[in-house]
Amino acid sequence: MLLLLLLLLLVLLLLLLLLQLLQLLLLLLLLLLLLLLLLLLLLLLLLLLLLLLLLLLLLLLLLLLLLLLLLLLLLLLLLLQLLLLLLLLLSTTTTAAATTTTTTTTTILLLLLLLLLLLLLLLLLLLLLLLLLLPLLLQLLLLLLLLLLLLLLLLLLLLLLLLLLLLLLLLLLLLLLLLLLLLLLLLLLLLLLLLLLLLLLLLLLY
């Protein structure tokens, strides 16, 4: 009888310990689920950032192409104006006589020619700057995209690790539940044995 009582106590202690372990495992599962949700949110945010960066890349490329087209159009217009001024200068110097009016018009035309040449030089410098800045901007944006992709890969790896941990914890929970069921069965068997012994003792006494 005493041995059976001791066995009952041991089984009850084991049950209590297993229940505490189950509580701890459930808490761990909840924490892991929260971490998974946070990582999923981070993944979504990073995907949104990637999309925004791609849109920025496209917008920057379009803006740079538009600027290049505008600069090319301005260059063409300036070249046409230069040709017209040269034709005017040739016409004034060949047809008109050397009077004061023709000299003033030629000087004005020469000044306009110089201004147009300066504008041409400035536009050429702007074109060169844009052509130099284009690859740098593209390289920077590509580096940002690569960094974001690396972050996405790392987050995916973390998600996989957390999923593996969740699976392991679920397996542990199942094992603990099986152990609890086995211990409950043992308790029932021990109680039945105790009842049988009590009945035998009562029969022997009477």
Automatic annotation (TrEMBL):
Membrane topology of this protein: Multi-pass membrane protein
InterPro entries per UniProt: ABC1_TM_dom, MetI-like
Record's keyword terms, sorted: Membrane, Transmembrane, Transmembrane helix
ABC transmembrane type-1 domain: residues covered: 1-158, 9-175
Coiled-coil ranges (or none): none
Record's keyword annotation contains Transmembrane helix: yes
Keyword Iron: no
Membrane-spanning segments: 31-56, 63-88, 108-134, 141-174, 180-205
Main location (coarse class): membrane
GO MF entry, a single one: ABC-type transporter activity
UniProt subcellular location: Membrane
GO cellular component: membrane
Full protein name: ABC transmembrane type-1 domain-containing protein
Annotated source species: Dreissena polymorpha
